[in-house]
Write a structure and sequence with these properties.
With 172 residues, the chain is an alpha+beta fold. The protein contains three helices and five strands. Helix content is 31%, strand content 27%. It binds ligand GNR and nickel (II) ion (NI). Nickel (II) ion binds next to helix 2.
Length: 172
């Protein structure tokens, strides 16, 4: 098992459209394990493979309080949507930034499990928001792209400043 490096916005690799998994082999199983470990270690409720620089359609999610209810979605497809909801979102690739994003309130998702079994899931609330946020990552989209250009510019400035501070710390 290993904890993977999470790409930070802005990074061109966060805008790559991820490819479907064709065969659930040992490499994919290891990826799922490493992504879960990375998500838990970063205290996130979800992680898309895109964020760890693997452009494949793999997502891990755990919205449970106890952090013991892992959901794996491979090649997820949203089949239907209903309603809208506004949620305050954050992202492990955009640390320290939280803002409101409008999403579908309820979704029907089809995906493969880690074992390769096809399943359908009706999601509402935080789970629905999280699945949409993660599928956006697979499509090369980061949540801040829903915000105004002004906000996006401020966020990039702030993240670059934080990154500079970290680089200096590391080299001293
Ligand atoms: O940890 C996360 N929290 C979160 C909160 C509200 C909406 C979406 C999320 S996902 C995020 C982890 C992450 O960046 N996944 O891509
Ligand atoms: Ni994210």
């Amino acid at each position: 098992m290993s904890i993977l490096n999470i790409l930070q916005h802005p990074d061109d690799r966060l805008h790559i459209s991820a490819k479907p998994i064709k065969e659930l082999d040992a490499v994919t199983h290891q990826l799922v394990k490493d992504m879960a470990e990375t998500m838990y270690s970063a205290s996130g409720i979800g992680l898309a493979a895109t964020q760890v620089n693997v452009p494949k359609r793999v997502i891990v999610i755990d919205i449970s309080e106890a952090r013991d209810d892992l959901l794996v979605l491979i090649n997820p497809e949203i089949q239907s949507r209903e309603g809208t909801v506004v949620f305050e979102e954050g992202c492990l690739s955009v640390p320290g930034v939280y803002d409101r994003v409008e999403r579908s309130e309820q979704i029907m998702v089809q995906a493969l499990s880690a074992e390769g079994d096809e399943f359908k899931l009706e999601a509402t609330g935080l789970l629905s928001v999280c699945i949409q946020h993660e599928i956006d990552h697979l499509d090369g989209k980061v949540f801040v792209e829903y915000l105004s250009r002004l906000k996006q510019d401020r966020i990039i400035k702030k993240l670059k400043k934080n990154q500079k501070g970290l680089d200096q710390q590391g080299s001293s």
